[in-house]
């Protein structure tokens, strides 16, 4: 049992920290469907910087920056241009897949995967950082003026604007936090879990993070607990592959995604999103 719990704690961070970041953008009223692409960008940046510098912690920082920079594209389209937030997120996901695949060939001269970095980050230190950041996020959201303003903008943007709160600024902050957290989740995969990046290695974790955020009712603590559930699905998949090697592996690989679908089907109708979620705001 303790071994399974340990594996869950090791596997959960990419989904967990991305899901917590998603809470920040969603409570301001901006839906970020581009988390998968931001996570993929962070993973690539983490692997590349780790390889060329030999320092995985620089790779982690690069992943955070990469996710934040990509999130600015989504923020500009969604907030300034008042574009369709769903379309923008999907476009970012497709762009990230194409760009990272191209950059592998440009920077490493091979196709499909980067070279392995010489060193990996200390697992315990990074875990402590990520879990501490996730816990502190709950305090930011519910124990600070910034968190109060973010929630106010998500529920009543016009009223918030009327009392002097910059809706655009607050939404930018929310989207950028979500991008940076997703970038950190991606960088965790290539600086702690593995020493290299491969095409589309996020493998739907960004969408799982969205499901965890919804399952957790747009709250960091709830998103964290949901992330542990999805991580358990991944651990169960591995354990069953070891115990039943003759069983079709493709079916076992479906377990985490089936859990995600069940969570969405069972809880999405019962969860109430912020009133202005997904709605563009035009300053009066």
């Amino acid at each position: 049992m303790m071994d399974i719990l340990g594996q869950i704690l090791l596997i959960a961070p990419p989904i967990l920290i991305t899901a917590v970041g998603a809470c920040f953008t969603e409570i301001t009223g901006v839906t970020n469907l581009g988390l998968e692409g931001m996570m993929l960008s962070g993973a690539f940046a983490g692997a590349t910087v780790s390889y060329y510098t030999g320092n995985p912690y620089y790779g982690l920082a690069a992943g955070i920056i990469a996710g934040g920079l990509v999130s600015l594209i989504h923020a500009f389209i969604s907030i300034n241009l008042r574009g369709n937030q769903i379309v923008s997120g999907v476009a970012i996901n497709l762009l990230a897949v194409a760009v990272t695949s191209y950059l592998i060939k440009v920077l490493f001269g091979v196709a499909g995967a980067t070279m392995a970095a010489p060193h990996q980050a200390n697992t315990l230190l990074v875990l402590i950082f990520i879990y501490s950041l996730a816990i502190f996020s709950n305090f930011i959201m519910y124990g600070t003026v910034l968190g109060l303003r973010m929630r106010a903008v998500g529920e009543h943007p016009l009223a918030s604007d009327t009392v002097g709160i910059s809706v655009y600024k607050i939404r930018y902050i929310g989207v950028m936090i979500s991008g940076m957290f997703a970038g950190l989740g991606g960088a965790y995969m290539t600086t702690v879990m593995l020493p290299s990046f491969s095409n589309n290695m996020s493998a739907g974790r960004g969408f799982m993070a969205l499901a965890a955020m919804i399952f957790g009712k747009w709250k960091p603590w709830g998103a964290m607990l949901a992330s542990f559930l999805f991580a358990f699905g991944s651990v169960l998949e591995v354990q069953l592959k070891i115990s039943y090697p003759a069983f079709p592996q493709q079916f076992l690989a479906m377990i985490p995604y089936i859990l995600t679908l069940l969570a969405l089907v069972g809880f999405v109708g019962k969860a109430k999103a912020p009133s202005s979620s997904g709605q563009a705001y035009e300053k009066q």
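The mean pLDDT is 91. DSSP finds 13 helices and no strands in the chain.
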